[in-house]
């Protein structure tokens, strides 16, 4: 078993409310990602689970048992940090073996466990080197191996890939998912990188200013963001948001445009709304009757696609287009909107409107 549940976690540092009622349920065996911008309270949440933070309020349950008062050691959790925290004078082998030695395992048990985890992480040939003789990526693998070498109740990982270059990060994302599948343990993984979150997680909790905004699968968080903030934080290029309201069967923009009212919404006339549309749900090719008139503002070629910036009134819409798209800044464009995939948010509360009709 390896369930982790936290309920109503509160923690302030002086004026800063780092955690403001954080409640999360991590199922056994999940790859659970806590995603949020810098300062959202991700590390503090992880430290609270590990027992490294004295809480103002709230409880931590491990395997359904109240562990709020337990020492870090009694919780039986393994933590991997952004900084590798390896012993510099010890070889990779000794670093990896250290948690087992602390538990007084026999030499043959240690050797077998180190061999197994080293093969999982493809670091067998590095075992006799000291940290100074390893690259950043190799050190990260050794640090991971040290956490994975024993079978704790759960693994807590605090942005472990942050210090790696982009290529290694991408590789390690795939590796970590593979390792999680082969080990079958519970991973609680903290990151501010939404691509990491969407690509690795079974479930994502989105955190902002010490409050959980949404918990769901990557698809749920991306396709049905609970509020305007989550919609803006998750997804690249950023979702375009346009002020508007409903008038009968029309959606009327504050910038003067009109679109057909999305079939799935039953919102009342006149209520201030925000229409949210992702770049892939906008098109500069003529595809339907739901279109907005604007002018080309800029082109951002990204190899496999080009992001077209289109100015509609004072707003810039991000539109995903084919890499071959061309144009001159200032030229008139019609942008087709896939209203079945668009989002509406209450402009005052930021909350997503019910999507019952979809
Ligand atoms: N020991 C501390 N003393 C004072 N303030 C702290 C302390 N630890 C965290 N904070 C503050 O609490 C808030 C949450 O910090 P936390 O490290 O949990 O955020 P985070 O989401 O992990 O950010 P990052 O992605 O930058 O690591 C921040 O405003 C931070 O400055």
From TrEMBL:
Pfam families: ABC_tran, TOBE_2. InterPro entries: AAA+_ATPase, ABC_transporter-like_ATP-bd, ABC_transporter-like_CS, ABC_transpr_MalK/UgpC-like, Mo/tungstate-bd_C_term_dom, NA-bd_OB-fold, P-loop_NTPase, Transp-assoc_OB_typ2. The keyword Transport applies. The keyword Cell inner membrane does not apply. Keywords: ATP-binding, Cell membrane, Membrane, Nucleotide-binding, Translocase, Transport. Residues 4-234 form the ABC transporter domain. PROSITE patterns: ABC_TRANSPORTER_1, ABC_TRANSPORTER_2. PANTHER family: MALTODEXTRIN IMPORT ATP-BINDING PROTEIN MSMX (PTHR43875), TREHALOSE IMPORT ATP-BINDING PROTEIN SUGC (PTHR43875:SF15). This is ABC transporter permease. It comes from Phytohabitans aurantiacus. The lineage of its organism: Bacteria, Bacillati, Actinomycetota, Actinomycetes, Micromonosporales.
């Amino acid at each position: 078993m390896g369930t982790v549940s936290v309920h109503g976690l509160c923690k302030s540092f002086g004026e800063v409310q780092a955690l403001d009622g954080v409640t999360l349920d991590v199922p056994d065996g999940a790859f659970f990602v806590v995603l949020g911008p810098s300062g959202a309270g991700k590390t503090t949440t992880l430290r609270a689970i590990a027992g490294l933070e004295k809480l103002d309020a709230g409880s931590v349950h491990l395997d359904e048992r109240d562990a709020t008062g337990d020492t870090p050691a009694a919780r039986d959790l393994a933590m991997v940090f952004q900084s590798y925290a390896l012993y510099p004078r010890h070889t990779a082998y000794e670093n990896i073996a250290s948690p087992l030695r602390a538990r007084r395992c026999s030499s043959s048990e240690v050797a077998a466990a180190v061999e197994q985890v080293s093969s999982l992480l493809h670091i067998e040939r590095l075992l006799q080197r000291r940290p100074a003789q390893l690259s950043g990526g190799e050190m990260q693998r050794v640090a991971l191996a040290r956490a994975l070498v024993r079978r704790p109740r759960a693994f807590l990982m605090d942005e472990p890939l942050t210090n790696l270059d982009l290529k290694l990060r991408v590789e390690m994302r795939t590796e970590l998912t593979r390792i999680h599948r082969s080990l079958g343990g519970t991973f609680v993984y903290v990151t501010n990188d939404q691509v990491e979150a969407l690509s690795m997680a079974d479930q994502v909790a989105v955190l902002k200013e010490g409050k959980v905004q949404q918990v769901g699968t990557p698809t749920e968080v991306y396709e049905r963001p609970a509020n305007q903030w989550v919609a803006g934080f998750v997804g690249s290029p950023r979702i375009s948001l346009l002020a508007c309201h409903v008038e009968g069967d029309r959606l009327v923009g504050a910038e003067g445009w009109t679109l057909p009212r999305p079939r799935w919404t039953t919102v009342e006339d006149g209520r201030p709304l925000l229409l949210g549309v992702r770049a892939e749900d906008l098109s500069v090719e003529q595809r339907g009757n739901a279109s907005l008139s604007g002018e080309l503002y800029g082109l951002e070629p990204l190899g496999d696609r080009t992001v077209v910036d289109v100015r509609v009134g004072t707003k810039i819409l991000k539109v995903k287009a084919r890499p071959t798209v061309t144009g001159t800044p200032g030229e008139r464009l019609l942008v087709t909107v896939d209203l079945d995939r668009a989002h509406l948010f209450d402009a005052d509360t930021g909350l997503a409107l019910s999507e019952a009709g979809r």
